[in-house]
Amino acid sequence: MTALLKFLLTFLILALATPAMAQVRIKDIVTVEGVRSNQLVGYGLVVGLNGTGDSLRNAPFTQRAIEGMLERLGIGNLTEDQMRTANTAAVMVTADLPPFARAGSTIDVVVSSLGDASSLRGGTLIVTPLSAADGEIYAVAQGPIAVAGYAAQGLNASIVEGVPTGARIENGAIVEREVEFAFNDLDRVLLALRNPDFVTAKRVESAINAELPGAATAMDPRTIAIELSGKVSMMEMMAYIEPIIVEPDQVAKVIIDARSGTIVIGANVRIDRVAVSQGGLTVTVRDDFNVSQPETLSIGGTTVVVPNSTVGVEKRDAKFAVIDGSVSLQRLVDGLNAIGVGATETISILQAIKAAGALHADLEII
């Protein structure tokens, strides 16, 4: 029995010393140096609108664009009156060129009105070159527009739902130029943590080196260097590293959106022992209007409106709740719920606890 008890005690100690089960893959918390998208932009015209396009008087750039388009198509020498139309709109076209995109592949584009067009619904984007920051053209966009919003207007009323002057074209651009990047020829790459942290960087280094000894070196809280080892290529090595499971660490943080009353509390948030009381007054003001009529057959009497105001004050008794020191997230939520407070009151309580120095977390208000 003594030997069995010693064995069980040793097993429990080792079990408690074992780290918590890992949660995420490395590919979900890092980005790879050089593997990124590139932003593209272009200026184009949307045609085929049902009278909801730019007014050429208020958007002279639209008129110039129409002139240039028609001249390229062999139609010129048109007067200003001959070109007056409300079925065309000038737009800015944006897109993201994904990494390793090849010539002939398609990408999505976003179309946004540049002039005073009221809606792009039913329009078609004509050929629009998309260039990057270096001035080179990498894609060409064209196609029918899909608008989520709508606008309708009558003589005395109008309604607008969503944003009818912004649209999206799925697979609306064709890649014409590739971004040269020989990833497989690299012998060293850098992994960048999306959320920099010393502990997480060290855990990533240890997890990689456990599978590929000596391959990873944590350089700082954000960067882990990967050295090519063996006869495998960098492509094969990254394919082996990305599925490795690690447990990232988190900074204790409380996020508050005061506009919507949304509160997000991180799992590592801790507070010291505090007593919380929350109460207040609710003041209600009600105005009723009574009509005073003159008596029948009275001379000189008039009908008057007599206001009658009622003011009521409701006092809610303040309750104290003691929240023990170094409590977990669940205990904190239970303590706040015990005094029956809502989102607005919880925000004020958290700010007060932080001001008292009892909240051990970053309090961020957005």
Automatic annotation (TrEMBL):
It is found in: Bacterial flagellum basal body. One of its GO terms (biological process) is bacterial-type flagellum-dependent cell motility. InterPro entries: Flag_FlgI. GO terms for molecular function: structural molecule activity. Keywords: Bacterial flagellum, Cell projection, Cilium, Flagellum, Periplasm, Signal. One of its GO terms (cellular component) is outer membrane-bounded periplasmic space. Its main location: other. Residues 1-22 form the signal peptide. Pfam families: FlgI. The basal body constitutes a major portion of the flagellar organelle and consists of four rings (L,P,S, and M) mounted on a central rod. Belongs to the FlgI family. Assembles around the rod to form the L-ring and probably protects the motor/basal body from shearing forces during rotation. NCBIfam families: PRK05303.1. HAMAP family: FlgI. This is Flagellar P-ring protein. The gene is flgI.
